[in-house]
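Re: that chain you flagged

S.,

Sorry for the slow reply, it's been a week of failed gels. I finally had a moment to sit down with the sequence you sent. For the record, here it is as I used it:
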Amino acid sequence: MNLKQRIEAFVKLGEFLTQFSTERMAKKEDSEFNNLFFDAFKMQIERSQEYNGWFTKNNVLRALESWSNTLTTSKLNKWTSSYTFNEKRPKTVAVIMAGNIPLVGFHDFLSVLISGYNVQVKLSSNDSYFLPLIAKFLEHYNEDFKGRITFNKEKLTEYDAVIATGSDNTARYFEHYFGKHPNIIRKNRNSVAILTGNETQKELELLGEDIFLYFGLGCRSVSKVFVPNKYNFDVLFKAIYKFKEIIEYKKYENNYDYNKAVYLMSLFNLKENGFLMLKEDSQYASPIATLFYEYYDDFEKLLEKLQQDKERIQCVVSNENAVDFVKLGNSQKPELWNYADNVDTIEFLLKL
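Prediction finished late last night. Pasting the structure tokens below so you have them in one place:
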């Protein structure tokens, strides 16, 4: 199976996934895969919240919709054209996945297979149902995938390299256990936004997507905003009011109530609107239903600070014209070449 055939398989997967969007789940009559896979995917979407309370139907559909928009011929060709793939004896790469948002480990899975390697996956118990279905789809479309994809619930064995995603605590374990192998080990990261005070209401509404999508659980979710001195937070609260229904979700509401009680007992000064708390804090990782903020005087000095803290930051969201900034509303829409932690996964794999 060559690169062209691998790309073709993922394009077919992307086309199949177009049937699942936040607007509707609609079966296309001309899909050759529906008899085997449509109902299976639909059932898992409907039941996803039973297995993980944060995996609401809408959030799962958002994740599938995002990948259906990404797995296109043009994007896959653009991504892979930057590399030289050597069709040699395939290596086996162990991928240890997180489970904070739906299909969060799919990019690693895709990267290993698109490189022509075998993947041994250790799924998170929080997200263990969709990827095996996707593997079945790929194996059905091209039998050469059979034997290249394995899921391991026990101890990982017989692998040439490791890609592991977890917290700062689990990273220490990963480094100890997998340190003798070529590896990519990811730790906690958060995303931040820089506001200038000149944003329109529409732009701030887009920032709301960056804050609230997936309940703020993703590493690309904005957990902190930097604002100029004397910033008018009423403008921000007005713009994000459209997301008020998030408080109706019980798990989110429980976190809101708990964190608010903790803050108030600690006599912290909060700004809040009934579904989001704003707390001035120098840290990057804010709890659920909380957005940290910090004032800045000088934009260039702020950039220097963020550069110094780059190992703790996944992406910076801002409409300012600066290199590597993500536009408001786009933090959860990375391209294939926007690698987690800015580590080029394909380059790592091709050097094995």
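What I noticed first: Residues 27 and 34 are 7 Å apart (CA to CA).

Talk soon,
D.
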